[in-house]
C-alpha cells in the first residue's frame, strides 16, 4: 500500500460532516474535508442517489464487467459513507434531524429555502444543535434579487464575467465567448466553502458558537476574476477576450513550433532578455519598443510576430529544452493522458488507486497539498449507493437491524 493510502487520523479526524449536497460544488467541499480526516456521511435519495452517478459514459465496471456509477461521481465522492434517506417523508426528515444533532457540520446545496419545508434548514437544525456549522451552497446566495434562481456552472461562468475574458477576440477565427473546459465555478465555490467551514470550526473552538455559511457560485466566480476585476475596478479598463494572451504581461502566450505548440511565460525583463538571447536575437531585448513590460504590451503584435517566426523554426521539445536551460518559464500543452504519464506527475504521486468492497478498482487524483504532520489520506473509495446505511444508522443513531429493516420496508431508507 502506498504511504498516501495508509489511513491516518488526519487534521479533521474529530469532525463529523453530514453532507446533503450533490453534483459538484458541495461534494467537492466535503471531499476536501474527508481527505483531511473528517468523517463524512453523504445522504442520498433511495434508488436514485447523486445525479452524477448517471453522468456518463464513461462508467465504472466491476470485476464481472457490470456497469456501475459514472466516472464523474468518482471525482468528488471518496472518503465518504453513502446513506439513503428519503427526507421528503416525515420519518426520513426526522432521521436527518437526529443525525444533524450529532454532527459538527451540515453541508447542503438545495435551492434557497428548499430545505425549510422538511425542517432541515439552519434555524430548525440550530435549535437541536446550537454549535452546528451549516454551510449552504447555491447559485446566487441566500439574499438578493437572484436568490431564487437555480445556478449551474455554465450559467455562472457567463454571468460572473469569466466568459467575457475567455476565448478568442470577435475578429479572430473561432472568436466569441468560451467556457472553461472544467466546471471551475463549482470547484472555486467548493474550495471557498471548505475554507469557510474550517474558519467556522476555528471560531467555534474559541467561542463554542456555531454559524450559518452562505456560499454562492456567483460570488465565488466574481472573486476569482482576480487581476481582471482589479483592471476594471482600479484602472477603469474593461477586460476583453485575448485568446491565449495575457492582459498584463508580454510575452506570455502559446506560440506555434515546427511540430506543435509551446507556452512561453516571461514574468520579468530578465526572463525576456534570456529568451531573446537563447533564440539568437539578443538585440530585441534592448529595442526601445520591448525594453519594459509596458512597452511590450503596447507593441504586443509586433513582438508576437517576431517570436512566432523565431519559434516556428524549431521543434517543440527542442524549444522547451533550450528555454529550460536558460531558466525561461516554458512548457508543452499536454493532453490529460500526457499529464498522468509525465515524470513529474508520477514523482509527485498525483494518481492514486482505490478499491471498493466488491473489488472494483478506480483511479483518482491525489489531494494536492502536502501536510507534513497530518497528510491527506484515502480511506474509502467513492461509495456504492446506500452501502453504509445500516452501519451509519447504528453508529450515529443507535438503530438496530430490526429498526432499519422497518424503515426500508416503509421506503424511508
From TrEMBL:
Name of protein: Crotonobetainyl-CoA:carnitine CoA-transferase CaiB-like acyl-CoA transferase
InterPro entries, per database record: CoA-transferase_III_domain, CoA-Trfase_fam_III, CoA-Trfase_III_dom3_sf, CoA-Trfase_III_dom_1_sf
Domain of life: Bacteria
Classification via PANTHER family: SUCCINATE--HYDROXYMETHYLGLUTARATE COA-TRANSFERASE
Assigned keywords, A-Z: Transferase
GO MF annotation list: CoA-transferase activity
Coiled coil: none
Amino acid at each position: 500500500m502506498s504511504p498516501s493510502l495508509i489511513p491516518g487520523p488526519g487534521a479533521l479526524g474529530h469532525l463529523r460532516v453530514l453532507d446533503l449536497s450533490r453534483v459538484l460544488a458541495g461534494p467537492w467541499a466535503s471531499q476536501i474535508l474527508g481527505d483531511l480526516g473528517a468523517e463524512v456521511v453523504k445522504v442520498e435519495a433511495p434508488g436514485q442517489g447523486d445525479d452524477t452517478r448517471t453522468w456518463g459514459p464513461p462508467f465504472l465496471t466491476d470485476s464481472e464487467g457490470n456497469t456501475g456509477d459514472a466516472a464523474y461521481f468518482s471525482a468528488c465522492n471518496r472518503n465518504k459513507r453513502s446513506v439513503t434517506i428519503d427526507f421528503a417523508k416525515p420519518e426520513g426528515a426526522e432521521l436527518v434531524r437526529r443525525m444533524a444533532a450529532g454532527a459538527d457540520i451540515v453541508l447542503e446545496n438545495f435551492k434557497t429555502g428548499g430545505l425549510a419545508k422538511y425542517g432541515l434548514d439552519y434555524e430548525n437544525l440550530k435549535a437541536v444543535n446550537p454549535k452546528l456549522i451549516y454551510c449552504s451552497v447555491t447559485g446566487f446566495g441566500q439574499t438578493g434579487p437572484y436568490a431564487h434562481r437555480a445556478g449551474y456552472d455554465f450559467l455562472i461562468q457567463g454571468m460572473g464575467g469569466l466568459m467575457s475574458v475567455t476565448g478568442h477576440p470577435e475578429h479572430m477565427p473561432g472568436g466569441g465567448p468560451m467556457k472553461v473546459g472544467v466546471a471551475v465555478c463549482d470547484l472555486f465555490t467548493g474550495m471557498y466553502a471548505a475554507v469557510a467551514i474550517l474558519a467556522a470550526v476555528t471560531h467555534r473552538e474559541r467561542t463554542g458558537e456555531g454559524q450559518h455559511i452562505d456560499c454562492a457560485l456567483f460570488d465565488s466566480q466574481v472573486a476569482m476574476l482576480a487581476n481582471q476585476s482589479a483592471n476594471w475596478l482600479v484602472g477603469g479598463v474593461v477586460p476583453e477576450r485575448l485568446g491565449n494572451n495575457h492582459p498584463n504581461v508580454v510575452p506570455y502566450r502559446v506560440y506555434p513550433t515546427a511540430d506543435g505548440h509551446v507556452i512561453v511565460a516571461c514574468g520579468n525583463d530578465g526572463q525576456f532578455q534570456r529568451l531573446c538571447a537563447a533564440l539568437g536575437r539578443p538585440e530585441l531585448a534592448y529595442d526601445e519598443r520591448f525594453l519594459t513590460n509596458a512597452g511590450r504590451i503596447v507593441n504586443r503584435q509586433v513582438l508576437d510576430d517576431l517570436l512566432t517566426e523565431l519559434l516556428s523554426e524549431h521543434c517543440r521539445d527542442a524549444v522547451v529544452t533550450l528555454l529550460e536551460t536558460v531558466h525561461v518559464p516554458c512548457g508543452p500543452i499536454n493532453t490529460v493522458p500526457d499529464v498522468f504519464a509525465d515524470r513529474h506527475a508520477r514523482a509527485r504521486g498525483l494518481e492514486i488507486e482505490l478499491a471498493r468492497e466488491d473489488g472494483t478498482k478506480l483511479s483518482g487524483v491525489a489531494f494536492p497539498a502536502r501536510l507534513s504532520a497530518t497528510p491527506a489520506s484515502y480511506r474509502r473509495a467513492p461509495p456504492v449507493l446506500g452501502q453504509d446505511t445500516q452501519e451509519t444508522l447504528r453508529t450515529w443513531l443507535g438503530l438496530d437491524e430490526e429498526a432499519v429493516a422497518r424503515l426500508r420496508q416503509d421506503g424511508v431508507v
